[in-house]
Amino acid sequence: xxxxxxxxxxxxxxxxxxxxxxxxxxxxxxxxxxxxxxxxxxxxxxxxxxxxxxxxxxxxxxxxxxxxxxxxxxxxxxxxxxxxxxxxxxxxxxxxxxxxxxxxxxxxxxxxxxxxxxxxxxxxxxxxxxxxxxxxxxxxxxxxxxxxxxxxxxxxxxxxxxxxxxxxxxxxxxxxxxxxxxxxxxxxxxxxxxxxxxxxxxxxxxxxxxxxxxxxxxxxxxxxxxxxxxxxxxxxxxxxxxxxxxxxxxxxxxxxxxxxxxxxxxxxxxx
Length: 271
Ligand SMILES: Cc1cc2nc3c(=O)[nH]c(=O)nc-3n(C[C@H](O)[C@H](O)[C@H](O)COP(=O)(O)O)c2cc1C
What we know:
The chain is of the alpha/beta class. The chain has 3 domains: 30 residues, no CATH class; 173 residues, Aldolase class I (TIM Barrel), CATH 3.20.20.70; 31 residues, no CATH class. Helices cover 32% and strands 13% of the residues. The strands form 3 sheets. The protein has a 5-stranded parallel sheet. The longest helix has 14 residues. About 2% of the residues have low confidence. The site of flavin mononucleotide has 17 residues, from helix 9.
């Protein structure tokens, strides 16, 4: 008995391949193309719970300083957007809007971010203010101990004023961004994280952790959560591989400043 293979397409993949061969490229692309990364996600329920808060979107807004440098509405607009998307806005230590003013503008979910500052009295004051204003958690950024050598800032002679939540002295004096001693105490240790945890009833999340060993150390001093982050290595030190990239299918999904430019990168990393 002679065996022969059929040259005819027998499923949609093969019809598609045939169409690709026969049609001019632009016509094929017009028919076959979808939006952005061409992945359909509309049927997926993305809601989850973070430290007891239900979010509709499993992407929180990371703390970034100085939103008013980009738009006059600054952090208030970001908070509005976070609330509309059903997620949490983590407000930077270097916010251009006061914690209290921000909290008054909405009914969403706010976390506050700070550093292990040298100034314990100020830290205590921020923790109390955040609690009183209705913030729901505290992020302690651990990976910005040293001022980064960001050459673009040096070249641009980039200067900024201190965030409005700091004590008023020198608040309006522009200074080079990330000057030594401005934020984190370079001599901070796990004890400082432990102290912050003891100084507030709010849950404390350690940001900037990269290894399992550090996660264990965070747990030992009582942290309620960790944020794995490439900030310290990419924006502050450079040259290291972003932690998410190790798990991400798309090689270009994490840019030089450590940011994702495609939400679908997150879906890719889950496969
Ligand atoms: C313009 C800019 C300002 C930032 N400001 C802060 C900040 O004030 N506090 C902080 O903890 N992280 C800050 N970050 C870091 C981000 O929260 C985030 O960690 C970083 O973009 C890397 O993303 P990843 O944490 O998902 O790796 C800033 C990032 C950018 C790009």
